[in-house]
Amino acid sequence: MQKHHNVQPEDRPITLPWEIQPLAYGTTRPSPWSPVEVAGLDGARLRALRESPFARNLLGGDRFARFWFCDMRRLSLFLILMRESPWLRGEWGCFAMATLASRSKMSIARIYQVLCLGKGTGDFLCHRDSRDGRMILLEPSPAAQQAFEALIAQFFSALSLFLHRIDPLPRLTPEERREAYVDSIDTLHALLGRAALDDRQMGSTSFLVAMLDLWLHSPVPAPDFVRREASRLRVTQATMRNVLHRAERAGLIERSLRMLRLTPAAEQQTAAVVASIMSELSALHARTEARLRHASPADDATATGPARRSAANRLDEPVASVA
To answer: Per the record, which residues fall in region Disordered (predicted)?
Structure first.
């Protein structure tokens, strides 16, 4: 078995494959080798969020999640398709395959392959547009709609617990809930857009989640970390060792005897990324809470799904059927 020890870091700046956005508030400078407090968010709450049902579902809770959620490029594509579907927006839209490829950071050939698989499994219903035979109409199946609503519900539940706030989603009216769905998709897609998902070495879900887990738990014995992460991320231990090898070559992690930890520079960058993400998710939660001022108890009882959007209230960027 090949072992990676004493790997020399590459001679280039140490950077995480994620664009860091300026924060709306200050952050506490992290101390090396300990779960840091980021903008008042302690490590225990971050670890609880990492272990939430939302995180478990996102990393492959069932067959649907394993295909659409645990790969962040496919998740990005799924969010695009759901946002612009007639189920959510109330009307068909149109865009080219090149647009899908650019926004999800996949090749056009890969987009076609994923869509064909989604059609074959029945996740998306597909048929030719009667108005133009060159157009393919895509609509999420009832199972896809249910999976999306369950994911967003778990997301708000976990985020509310993290922020010590009441979950606003169940109390929204159908129209408010539809608006919250669109806002959530836009926020999550913007966050995914800052990750270098097209970087085959450092942009994979396994790599990014492993760096997050190492930041939350380091220092940790290397064999234990490999075994635990391989099980949690549903990859082989060989794959996880390769992830750590790439991180070590990039100067993101270092070893001390049997212990594994992020380097000080990587830890500070990870803290900045997490703070940036949580800042935007907190703002999303606040915007969703603000919608409750229009809610009434009678409306809450009928909030079972997104309302249809009228043609007079169009989105700025039409999308949903694929050319």
So the answer is: 292-323
Query: Domains of the chain (ranges plus CATH)?
Result: 43-291+317-322 (1.10.10.10)
Q: Is the pTM of this model over 0.70?
A: yes
- Dmax over CA atoms of the chain, in Å, equals 67
Q: Confirm if 78 and 147 have CB atoms less than 8 A apart.
A: no
Pick the closest to residue 196 from 88, 76, 318, 314 (CA basis).
76
User: Cα torsion at 227, 231, 232, 234 (round to 10°)?
Assistant: 130
Q: Taking the CB of residue 257, how many other CB atoms lie within 10 A of it? A: 8
CA 242 from centre of chain: 23
For strands 321-322 and 94-95, give the pairing: parallel
Q: Is 28 exposed, middle or buried (0-12, 13-18, 19+ CB in 10 A)?
A: middle
The helix or strand, by DSSP H or E, that contains position 321, with its residue range, turns out to be strand 321-322
- Rounded to whole angstroms, the Cα distance separating 127 from 173 reads 32
Distance in angstroms (rounded) separating the CA atoms of residues 90 and 271: 40
Find out whether 262 and 218 touch, Cβ atoms under 8 Å.
Answer: yes
**pLDDT in tens for each of the 323 residues of the chain?**
444 444 444 444 445 554 544 433 333 333 333 334 444 556 788 888 888 999 988 887 788 988 999 888 999 999 999 988 888 888 776 667 888 888 888 898 999 899 999 989 999 988 777 776 667 778 899 999 999 999 999 999 999 999 999 999 999 999 999 999 999 999 999 898 888 777 766 778 888 889 999 999 889 999 999 999 999 888 899 999 999 999 998 889 998 888 999 999 988 888 888 888 999 999 999 999 998 865 555 444 444 444 443 332 333 333 334 43
- The single-letter code of the amino acid at 143 is A
Distance, in Å, from the CA atom of 293 to the CA atom of 295, rounded to the nearest integer, reads: 6
CA-to-CA distance for 36 and 272, rounded, in angstroms? 10
